[in-house]
Write a structure and sequence with these properties.
single chain, elongated
């Protein structure tokens, strides 16, 4: 996995988690859902990059 893509995936996960936690604390369900989506996108990006590394051998 390239360092740039790995950092981008991790940043999305961290930002999503922070957004989700703040929104839950404030009781804002819409923003919490956006945080969950961002966190999931980061996890999906990380999984995709790991899969690419497997096939590179």
């Amino acid at each position: 996995m390239s360092a740039k893509e790995k950092a981008k995936a991790r940043a999305e996960q961290i930002a999503g988690k922070a957004l989700r936690k703040v929104a839950h604390a404030r009781g804002d369900k819409t923003t919490a859902a956006k945080g969950v989506a961002l966190e999931s996108r980061g996890k999906a990006r990380e999984t995709k990059e790991k899969g690419k590394d497997v096939f590179k051998g």
